[in-house]
Write a structure and sequence with these properties.
heterodimer; A: about 325 residues; alpha+beta; Immunoglobulin-like; Cytochrome Bc1 Complex, Chain D, domain 2; 5-stranded mixed beta sheet; 12 strands; about 20% strand; elongated; B: about 525 residues; mainly alpha; Cytochrome C Oxidase, Chain A; about 65% helix; about 0% strand; binds protoporphyrin IX containing FE; binds copper (II) ion
Chain lengths: ~325, ~525
């Protein structure tokens, strides 16, 4: 390899070798077919060349077996690629259960990262080596996309929704983070770096920062906005109890059900009437304009932490202890 | 040397006033008028591309500002896609030769055909106006909510331009379809049709069914932009991803509007210069239809990382692999057509060889992108840029040039220099690969597309790409030079300089105003070279 001309990206996550192996396979298969056709075309063009332009070719019009052969064989090869690629894809989109979560918002033209322990950073993301990390993100304005080539992961940031990527870094170091979805003037300036640290250094870095944990911040907002006055933990309030609701199924007034996930919680805060829970009046006010994306994410973290009342009626403080900094979630 | 008879009255000299051109209903003249506008658009598009490539020779944003850069790549793509790639083969070559090929006097609705041209030019003028007022910076994909609520550039004007131009496609598609159904000469059965006609038929289908969707979509963006209707902007209750579904529901099939007609051209030229039947005629014909139909079912492969469900991604990935098969079938059939041919190396065939090499790479790299696990990494990187340039410039534009060189003698009655044309094909082929092959590597390395400034480690490959672009520019300029020269000094071509079989070669070059002295009668297939004693006239 020539110095200074990279030909292949660094592999820095567990997903990277998986993607690369598939890439080599598809490259080999397609190169074979490309060469086959090119070589045949060249051989025929030279071997059957007629300099006069007066002769005619052999009276061949086609061959059904050949047609079937070159339809069916490529089809099966394509299906093999399809199958393998789909497996890899499901590894990329399905995060493991135990991940370290980091929240992020993109806006023109920067990325903010919010660690649940409280640290916030801009255009930089510190993560520990060897631990699965999940980044949950949205956009405050137009479309963006988080793209970390060394990890082979990418997903669009879409206003009004949460997307996520996950990765387990396998090499300490610094890696590019790009915005991959065109977002206007400084799209190419919406970049940053991912810093993969040894676990100990990461712990040190984490405790170096300040601020409330997202959960505590969420609890503050929960009180401040008066959510707590309706969403009583025992379910006797004007709104449904939120204890243990995260990831559960909720029946809606329109007869359908919904899984209570990040996007649904976000929507319920901003446009509560959109998907109303069965059995409740449309009395919840909208908090559009009062709470920002980070506030929403903190509220989500807080709601996630609320234990099911059936297990324990204890205050969320218990959960806060369980979610001590750095503990796998 | 035999003496060549120049028709005393032909479509070019029958009347020569400007008005006689602007009010013509002759499909041949209309084809030539498209050629003029498309050439202008191609020139403009190339100038913007040059700006982009100059900027990218250095990692810093030092040649133009970020805003200018964004406008450059957007205007490049808008002109190239909507005013070059979509009309280039159907509206120029299709208009000119299709009625000749089926032995008709003209298209079914000659006045409508002229109207299509005016509609096209009107759309073009709106887009030029958008450009003159500062251009558009949304990318040719116009993704919302950036295009509908944020961009401060002339989105509305360009949108109107594209909207209007769409109607020209629809009308042309309609006209071609009716023409192919109703205007075939006696004996010209469906399975005697030249494959170019089949390709145009399939293309017309896509134009008629797909184009209204993009028109509606552009209309919705306009409504949101102008009146604040909440369709795509989530702050107004809309869904930004809905736009992408609608846009690609048209724009994926649109890539087939761009490639199917050139594929038809390839079949014609290969058959002629190998003096053989196209191998597997009916498979080639039906693969065009299969592509046209299945092409409507793969749009969401542009949305694999846009938050669609993994299971729907799976379905669209599967269908994308499936739609690649008919293209592969065509490629194999073209290769087999050369087998045991009597291959006459003339310039049009050299452009076909260029097409084959580049389309092959373009199509095969489509498989990488259709692979879910790879597309996550490759989406919106230079890999995608390289892929579609291989298909659209390497495939569609090479195919157009193959056709233009093939039918130029028919259109103008003059020959160009075969040697220069071969050199140009080679220059374009080499320049093209130098420009776009490094972009595959850049893409896998992770360089995102639409980047004004980029990390230093990508510079070498970008410089290579930019230098390739200059070779490409020389190649295209050479074509323009010898073709224009041939108009004045070219040897007379005669009716059938390639000794080809199609009906278009049975009339004079340039053809008579109404094509044939009398309606031809067809009694054999399109490429019966081997049955006939081919001799120099
Ligand atoms: C041979 C079969 C093909 C397959 C399987 C295929 C697959 C794909 C896929 C999956 C993408 C999306 C990549 C991404 O955005 O991440 C893509 C992009 C694209 N393809 Fe193909 N493709 C094929 C042939 C073609 C043809 C024939 C054309 C045009 C004539 C074409 C033109 C394009 C264009 C224009 C884009 C990118 C558009 C944009 O994002 O601006 N492709 N292709
Ligand atoms: Cu961006
Ligand atoms: Cu597509």
């Amino acid at each position: 390899m020539l110095p200074g001309i990279p030909l292949f990206p660094e592999q820095a996550s567990t997903l990277a070798p998986e993607v690369d192996n598939l890439y080599f396979f598809v490259t080999a298969v397609t190169a074979f077919f490309a060469l086959l056709v090119v070589v045949l075309v060249l051989i025929f063009a030279i071997k059957y060349r007629d300099r006069t332009g007066e002769r005619v070719g052999a009276p061949i019009t086609g061959s059904i077996p050949l047609e079937l052969g070159w339809t069916i064989v490529p089809f099966f090869i394509a299906m093999a690629i399809f199958g393998w690629a789909t497996l890899v894809f499901f590894h990329i989109v399905r995060a493991p259960d135990q991940t370290l979560e980091v929240y992020s918002t993109g806006k023109r033209w920067m990325w903010r990262f919010q660690h649940i322990e409280g640290q916030g950073e801009i255009n930089e993301l510190h993560v520990p080596l060897g631990r699965p990390v999940k980044v949950i993100f949205t956009s405050e304005d137009v479309l963006h996309a988080i793209y970390i080539p060394a990890f082979r992961v990418k997903a669009d940031a879409i206003p009004g929704r949460y997307s996520s990527i996950w990765f387990t870094p396998t090499r300490a170091g610094e890696y590019h983070l790009f915005c991959a979805e065109y977002c206007g003037t400084k799209h190419s300036g919406m970049i940053g770096r991912v810093v993969v640290m040894e676990p100990n250094d990461y712990q040190a870095w984490l405790s170096g920062g300040g601020g409330l944990s997202m959960q505590a911040r969420g609890e503050q907002l929960f009180q401040q906005f008066g959510c707590a006055s309706c969403h009583l933990p025992d379910g006797s309030g004007r709104g449904p109890s939120l204890a243990g609701k995260y990831r559960s199924e909720e029946s809606l007034a329109n007869g359908t059900t919904v899984t209570v996930d990040d996007t649904y919680i976000r929507e319920s805060v901003l446009t509560p009437q959109m998907r109303l829970v069965a059995g409740y009046q449309p009395v919840m006010p909208t908090f559009q304009g009062q709470v920002n994306e980070e506030g929403l994410m903190s509220l989500i973290e807080y709601i996630k932490s609320l234990p099911s009342t059936r297990q324990t009626a204890a205050a969320p403080a218990a959960a806060a202890v369980a979610a001590a900094p750095g503990a796998p979630r | 040397m035999t003496t060549i008879v120049i028709p005393r009255v032909n479509y070019l000299n029958v009347k020569t006033t400007v008005a006689s051109w602007l009010l013509t209903r002759d499909h041949k003249r209309i084809g030539v008028m498209y050629l003029v506008v498309v050439a202008l658009a191609f020139f403009l598009g190339s100038v913007f591309a040059a700006g982009v490539r100059i900027e990218l020779t250095t990692p810093e944003g030092d040649f133009v500002s970020a805003d200018t850069y964004n406008r450059l790549f957007t205007m490049h793509a808008v002109f190239m896609v909507f005013f070059v790639l979509i009309p280039v083969v159907p509206a120029i070559l299709g208009n000119f030769v299709m009625p000749l090929m089926i032995g008709a006097k003209d298209v079914a609705f000659p006045t409508l055909n002229l109207l299509s041209w005016y509609v096209f030019v009107t759309g073009f003028l709106f887009t030029i106006a958008a450009l003159a007022l500062g251009g558009v910076d949304t990318g040719w994909t116009f993704y919302t909510p950036y295009s509908s609520n944020v961009s401060e550039s002339n989105v509305l004007l360009a949108g109107i331009g594209i909207f209007i131009t769409g109607f020209s496609s629809i009308l042309t598609g309609l006209n071609f379809m009716v023409t192919i159904h109703r205007m075939r000469a006696p004996g010209m059965t469906w399975f005697r049709l030249p494959l170019f006609v089949w390709a145009l038929y399939a293309t017309s289908l896509v134009m008629i069914l797909g184009t209204p969707v993009v028109a509606i979509t552009v209309g919705m963006v306009a409504l949101e932009r102008a009146f604040g209707f909440g369709i795509f902007d989530p702050r107004l209750g809309g869904d930004p991803v809905l736009f992408q579904h609608l846009f690609w529901f048209y724009s994926h099939p649109a890539v087939y509007i761009m490639i199917l007609p050139p594929m038809g051209v390839i079949s014609e030229v290969i058959a002629c210069f190998s003096r053989k039947n196209v191998f597997g005629y009916s498979f080639v014909a039906f693969s065009s239809l299969a592509i046209a139909v299945f092409g409507f079912l793969v749009w969401a492969h542009h949305l694999f990382v846009a938050g669609i469900s993994p299971y729907s991604a799976m379905v669209f990935s599967f269908l994308s692999f499936a739609v690649a098969i008919p293209s592969a079938v065509k490629t194999f059939n073209w290769t087999a057509t050369l087998y045991k041919g009597a291959i006459w190396w003339r310039a049009p065939l050299m452009w076909v060889f260029g097409f084959l090499g580049l389309f092959l790479v373009g199509g095969l790299t489509g498989l990488f992108l259709a692979s879910l696990g790879l597309d996550v990494h490759l989406h919106d990187t230079y890999f995608v840029v390289a892929h579609f340039h291989y298909i659209m410039v390497g495939g569609a534009i090479m195919g157009f040039f193959a056709g233009l060189h093939f039918w130029w003698p028919k259109m103008t009655g003059r020959m160009y220099s075969d040697g220069l044309a071969t050199v140009a094909a080679l220059l374009v082929f080499v320049g093209f690969n130098l420009t776009f092959f490094p972009q595959f590597i850049l893409g896998y390395l992770g360089m995102p597309r639409r980047y004004h400034v980029y990390p230093e480690e990508f510079q070498v490959l970008n410089v290579l790409s930019s230098s390739g672009a200059s070779v490409l520019a020389i190649g295209y300029s050479l074509v323009a030079i010898y073709l224009v020269y041939s108009l004045f000094r070219g040897e007379r071509a005669g009716a059938n300089p390639w000794l080809a079989t199609g009906l278009e070669w049975k009339t004079e070059s340039p053809p008579l105003p109404h094509n044939f002295p009398e309606t031809p009668i067809v009694n054999e297939g399109a490429y019966e070279y081997s049955k006939r004693e081919v001799k120099v006239a």
